[in-house]
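Quick start: read one record
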Amino acid sequence: MKICAIICEYNPFHNGHLYQISEAKRLSSADAVLCLMSGNFVQRGDAAIINKYTRARHAVQAGADIVVELPTVFATSNAELFAKGSIHLLSSIPAVSVLCFGCESAEKDAFLKAAKLLNNEPNEVSEKIKIATANGTSYVKARADAWAEKIPYDMLSSPNNILGLEYTKAILLNNADIDILPIARIGANYNDAQLKNNYSSASAIRAAIANKTDFGNNLPDFAAKDLPSQLQNCLDVLEKYAILSCVPEKIAAVCDCKEGLEHAFKKAATQSLPLVKALTSPRYTSARINRIALQNLLGIEERFIRACLSNPLYYSVLSANKARSDVLSALGEAKFPLIIRAHDENALSDIAKECFEKDLFASAVHNLLYPYFALKNIFI
């Protein structure tokens, strides 16, 4: 069996995602599509607006054959660790032979060339990045500037290109037998806050929901009907409480909390401004601030993320096409155990068990933010 994988969040599932699944099937000639999807929290350091089971069901309704959860420790991490965690899981499934990802620049050779360069970064480039960030430049801009002579600027500055590069880097580092299939996004860009006809970004759709404005025909009907009526939650309050409850050294153990940033978090937690507004700057992006606050709340330290990268984990199935038992059989031949039914996790031990427990805790926290009875009938 040949499986095409898609790493995704579907927050929410929209027409661009529908297009990608369709193109992945057409261009990969795969027998099945597997979506590796973030759970109840996403990479921008926020809560998903719809629970993970419902979002996974949307993917299967759109043509995916199975949806597996990307563990919370990776789903809430920076682009590099998000990608490494994803490839750690996918490369352990023998049937996964191709990874399809959306991007701004759909040139396979360009991704491979840039990834090889980035995996062998010379000291002079590293020093340029270090100096620029020390002077207040964000890491993303500093890296794009440092590599400008050899790598097109948009490859290192556009959000989906950045993730695509990190996927490609991780595949090469792992010597994984996985081909890449970049597909150019259609319609709006990732961060485009303006609604477009039919193909708006998830950011624009979330903004429309928050502002209670019409989001048009940007989602399939089966996904639109499950959208929440409002997005307000108390995540910032919970994050501030967690910061106030622990010593600075504990906050500093979270990934990307460096250069004394833990002390800034302690101070900001006592103020009325949301953490992201109090701490975002040219040097520290809002996504970085959000991720640090979220991972501190969820008890995810950098040392544990890296331990998860070097240990066997699991495949937690969120939704599946019940007519495709062959896909489940293919996952049964993978290196990590499948978690489908209640108590399957009892077979886990050590790092895998602790990683799964963080998924459970993340879901419990998400239920505080968006109370509901989650749909857990995974087969449709």
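The radius of gyration is 20 Å.
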